[in-house]
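Sample A.
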Amino acid sequence: MKRVFCIFTALLLLAPLAGAQKVQKSHVIGFYNLENLFDTYHDDGKNDYEYLPDGANQWTDVKYQKKLHSMASVIRAMKDANKVYHTVLGVSEIENRHVLEDLVAQPEIADANFQIVHYDGPDRRGVDCALLYRPDQFTLLESRSIPFTFEDTEIEFNIDSLRQIDFRTRDILHVRGTIGDEMFAFYVAHLPSRIGGKSGDLRSRGAEIIYRDAVRVMEEYPGIKIAVMGDMNDNPTDVSMCEYLHGKETMAEVGDLDFFNPFLSMIKAGYGSLAYQGVWCIFDIIMVNKAMVAAPEGSFTIKPIVKKRFYGRVFQLPFMTEQEGQYKGQPKRTMSNGAFINGYSDHYPTYIVISK
């Protein structure tokens, strides 16, 4: 009897540990452009002067703390809507690891225990991409920072070789790990902006870099499930996404080395994640490879989450949306016409859901 009691007691003690390791059946994989999440300190070699206390935006600690609260509030709202936090959340427009450490410690989301993957990149303003993940659901195996280069490509660029040498933009983040016993890879990107009007070739080059790396990873790890996410500064219908990243609108079109882009049908249906020059666009894209689409029974696959028809979601709630004025109906941004309006981001977050 004493032996039985001891075994029962041991099982009770081990139960919390076993529960902590249990993998969910459904996982949220998302992306959010945090729109200039800067701290109040200057980073050497970076043009972050407008986000200093004496800079153009008079970026004080009070404003910084409000910005952190705003970002955490949106992430928490997505958790409340989905009943679980993101397993993986890609982010962009963050200044450094410090701002992410401050973000994940916010009381609204601290219980998620988000861990951080981040590398300092060459962007002149100092903004980078990063990945937040829950270590109880995703086991990190490796990560890399992939530079933007002009080598080994047949794309004809609008900038000459001298300007190419001087060109600086965000690196692409690659993260590989497991959810349960299945291997996943995630790419987080923030492709070159549309400033100047003739930069489509640069975004096509960024897409080409991602695609070639993803193909290599698929060849090295047969059956690996891949999600490419980011602020692409292009719509799902643009050349960079359709041709260079091989994004397809329907699952039936997806070949072995293609990607399913659920936001392609959504933009055609009128959805948008931001308003660019007054026109609704979806720059915040997540696409998945065939292994995520045609998954064997009992393994993780992408699921429809909007009207049982769309496989992606643009997450927007009234508190995230401008209710009046020039930008009524658009995402409520942090700054407007040079003034701090205590908003959120000029982008809505997007996400997909995978489940067994």
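Sample B.
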Amino acid sequence: MATSRNPLRYLESRKNLTGSACGLVGLALTFAGVAGPYWPVVVAGLYGAGALIAPPERPQLPDFPDPSAQLEELRGDFGRLREYLGGVELPPAAAGRLTELTELLTALLDPGWVAEVLAQDPEGMHALSRAVRQDIPEAVDTFVRTRWWTRLTPGTEPPERHLERQLTLLYEEADRLAVALREVEARRQESHTRYLEDRGRSQ
């Protein structure tokens, strides 16, 4: 299948088009009587020269999803995460920490200007994606599995302490992201103020 596409691709290539144009010049010289009996060599030579001087083909860029599509996909994953969390029984303190975290993530991911700013921040998108797709599920799943073993070996450190600490750290990370997004908008507002002030002085 690939071999059947290659000749067609070459026919449409810059090398073939440029070579063909030069070959037509050779035919024109032949009809004008300039090439003489060596016209096949002239036509082939001009075609080859044209193919050599033609600019190389530019590879097509990969079709990556745009930031808004990535954000929409992350919203879907966050929805599935919330369904999973809804079926997990957690101690009151850890459940409270988790509620604070999911509420903050919901505010960041909800459609609106905050999500628009977030979509333009690759590092912020990466941090949020890592929290939703890896950190939170792993923290909760590890707690569930460790809690089962703790029942068999009483006297060990309660696993909920680690879970509470992990959720606190994740909340602090998400909060830093929210602060950074707010600062982006604050700088944008300040820039607009300076622009208006400079425009007023120039009038």
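B remarks: Residues 65 and 85 are 28 Å apart (CA to CA). The chain has two domains: 2-53, 67-202.
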